[in-house]
């Protein structure tokens, strides 16, 4: 009986965390460049139940028993968000559709809508994703899909959080006083131009080959603890990545699906709650009534 109580309690904790993840997605539905988080649940290791102590039958296996579930991790989905036109020259959006070839067949990998592919051996391959390279106030390189930038009084291109936007050489992009933002243009490869003339500055766009190695750092940016493990490289000419000026990428949260997931988590939480109440009443009866007899 106590085992069932613990199983129901683990289910409640799992559904609570799942519910928190969904509400976080809904709260950021209007956040530029936000990537939806998905909770991954996993069952506790199964236990083998055996009958022991019978001298005539010996040890007999009855079957397996599962003892609960827990949230293993929350994985972001880096699928492309919808673009919204703003008309501002300092707003930029990335359109990333990088493909990979299957090493075994040489054919393009058919990624699913979430940018994931599972091989026959169970290996998970993620679609590479492109990000703007920025530098925080501590001098650390971060990555973001939020391209709502502005130009400060010194001519530096910055994010809304004040982070410096980097070029392809890793230096901060600084426009001169004679280069107003209204005269700034950018081509699809990220090369900056002033009044139609190239200024030999390319916006720093990094391709993360294994985006599952990214960690959220708040303020719409991601950090990487091991760049080699994440497979970070500079944007190449043959990469299917485009920069759109005057647009920002919206959140990729599916509001309708999020509402369904939130209601499902709430119903599952209530079901586990009722099971705990049932076990509580059963234990109360066992102590107060059966024990008295």
Automatic annotation (TrEMBL):
<keyword id="KW-0969">Cilium</keyword>
<dbReference type="InterPro" id="IPR053967">
    <property type="entry name" value="LlgE_F_G-like_D1"/>
</dbReference>
<dbReference type="InterPro" id="IPR010930">
    <property type="entry name" value="Flg_bb/hook_C_dom"/>
</dbReference>
<dbReference type="Pfam" id="PF00460">
    <property type="entry name" value="Flg_bb_rod"/>
</dbReference>
<feature type="domain" description="Flagellar hook protein FlgE/F/G-like D1">
    <location>
        <begin position="130"/>
        <end position="193"/>
    </location>
</feature>
<feature type="domain" description="Flagellar basal-body/hook protein C-terminal">
    <location>
        <begin position="244"/>
        <end position="288"/>
    </location>
</feature>
<comment type="similarity">
    <text>Belongs to the flagella basal body rod proteins family.</text>
</comment>
<dbReference type="InterPro" id="IPR037925">
    <property type="entry name" value="FlgE/F/G-like"/>
</dbReference>
<dbReference type="InterPro" id="IPR001444">
    <property type="entry name" value="Flag_bb_rod_N"/>
</dbReference>
<keyword id="KW-0282">Flagellum</keyword>
<feature type="domain" description="Flagellar basal body rod protein N-terminal">
    <location>
        <begin position="5"/>
        <end position="35"/>
    </location>
</feature>
<protein>
    <submittedName>
        <fullName>Flagellar hook-basal body complex protein FlhO</fullName>
    </submittedName>
</protein>
<keyword id="KW-0966">Cell projection</keyword>
<dbReference type="Pfam" id="PF22692">
    <property type="entry name" value="LlgE_F_G_D1"/>
</dbReference>
<dbReference type="Pfam" id="PF06429">
    <property type="entry name" value="Flg_bbr_C"/>
</dbReference>
